Amino acid sequence: MALHRIEELSPADPAATICLARYYAELDARFSGGFMVEQSADPDAADLIRPRGCFLVAFAGDQPVGCIALKGTDRGYAEIKRMWIAKQARGSGLARHLMARIETVARELGITLLRLDSNRALHEAIAIYRHWGWTEVTRFNDDPYADVFFEKAI
Q1: Inter-residue contact 129 to 87 (CB < 8 Å)
Q2: pLDDT single digits (tens) 143-153
Q3: Burial of 44 (0-12, 13-18, 19+ CB in 10 A)
Q4: What's the pTM value of the predicted model, to 2 decimals?
């Protein structure tokens, strides 16, 4: 699969909402009790756009095949949120490429510490974060779906 571009978009952009809907559907299928975005610690859209954060969408042709968000906070760190890769794009290196781009944006915004949360059902993601140098830390939010927490200095 050829990746054509990664674009910085509003989380309300149609391509972003397609990615998020697919991400939420996958979480709902994979979590033992399902997933309801209204019960999660869903980030405010204003925290996902500059100057606080960023939302990236990856495209193969005109089809959105991945996304990742940088959520700005006032707590001395920013959070990586909503990283999702379409099944047909997995194993292509797209996740790493999106993470590298979001880390670059974080540096541009003066952010030096990133955090993220995950769920043990997403064992592939957890393995990737560990492989990429993220360190497991204690809980830093009250998201009911999160049970694994990481941080990384950049």
Answers
A1: no
A2: 999 999 999 99
A3: exposed
A4: 0.94
